[in-house]
Amino acid sequence: MCDMIDSQSAEKISRMKKLRRTLSESFSRIALKKEDSSFDEICVTKMSTRNCQGMDSVIKPLDTIPEDKKVRVQRTQSSFDPFEKPANQVKRVHSENNACINFKSSSAGKESPKVRRHSSPSSPTSPKFGKADSYEKLEKLGEGSYATVYKGKSKVNGKLVALKVIRLQEEEGTPFTAIREASLLKGLKHANIVLLHDIIHTKETLTLVFEYVHTDLCQYMDKHPGGLHPENVKLFLFQLLRGLSYIHQRYILHRDLKPQNLLISDTGELKLADFGLARAKSVPSHTYSNEVVTLWYRPPDVLLGSTEYSTCLDMWGVGCIFVEMIQGVAAFPGMKDIQDQLERIFLVLGTPNEDTWPGVHSLPHFKPERFTQYSPKSLRQAWNKLSYVNHAEDLASKLLQCFPKNRLSAQAALSHEYFSDLPPRLWELTDMSSIFTVPNVRLQAETGESMRVFGKNNSYGKGVSNSKH
Q1: Is residue 95 classed exposed, middle or buried when 0-12, 13-18 and 19+ CB atoms within 10 A define those classes?
Q2: Distance between CA 75 and CA 73 in Å, rounded?
Q3: Which of 36, 198, 256, 274 does the annotation list as catalytic?
Q4: SS3 of 16, please?
Q5: What domains, with CATH codes, occur in the chain?
Q6: Active-site residue 256, yes or no?
Q7: Stated pTM of the model
Q8: I need a surface site. Which of 235, 339, 356, 468 has the fewest CB within 10 A?
């Protein structure tokens, strides 16, 4: 009897050791997978709720998600890869978690799958994706607490890239934000989301290889103070909403929208970046942190301690960025603390109560006696330039709602009258198509300057400190 128990225990321990080895190697496989994959082949994940107004036809409430989708986030992958090896060399099948990669040789029995996997179309010394020596560092763009970003060049195809080098501590391992950013970005493929080209994992570092983008919206606004050209504001906002609608429909929250995290290419293409705080919410959860989003762009419900938020969190940030692009100054530039930030919000939108915000009294940090009682103002009283642009004030007011459920969704905002003078073809574009492929869609020169005047430092994510907020 004892022998049988010992045998079962040994077998169980063996299985556990095998599982442990599999888990410890799982992240490295991301890099291995990139050896034979394109810079452009990325899949998708899902996240969101329909708590925001106008999302009923697009996003289902979390508690009505089918059971099979609650278990895991669905991922799909493009079937075409311009960098893929010829079909007579390798046929790859990826499982959803990349734990299983099967290789099929064109000449059965002549070469093992293992040998074929590491083969190269040219020579064994040719640069490959997933290898550190496949990229040349050109200059440092920024450095932060755990990561350094370099401008680089790919030796595989000659493209400029941004290399986010994350330092690994033996006792701490890979920073969780880096793991989360990599796992989410490898599944997102959209013209208005920064593209993760490659992942390189060594004992000392984890390097995320992004497409190189010249500047960000913060630097662009610094170059053109006093508010941007109204037509450029409209195109930037349209692209921001387009990218957010894409991730929200895939059940992903960004959770850190601010101008520094919106990259701007030399053609004017806006790209969402820094997914270090992003979350894929495939099942209901009440465990989210309220320490998300830079203070100036943090919504009042989160400032008051709410952790039960969804896509509405991102939509408040959109409203703040919209106002800042038009007015030329931050909408709510808190200078002290959370209390000061809330006072600035309530000064414009009015101090909330149970009538204007059902449930506000139940929020952890809401104490009515702590706040001055303000009446709401029209937004043009606070930001006069909103009145210069047709429908701008109405759109801003529907985004900057204290009560989260009243905020417009990204999908609904794209249909707002504010965008009515844009070409209809913009709403028919495929995910990877730039809005600038549509005739007559282009940025206007800002204050007589060419828009090709850029700074060089981009954050590309948490751990790089070069922003002013």
Answers
A1: exposed
A2: 6
A3: 256
A4: helix
A5: 216-437 (1.10.510.10)
A6: yes
A7: 0.69
A8: 468
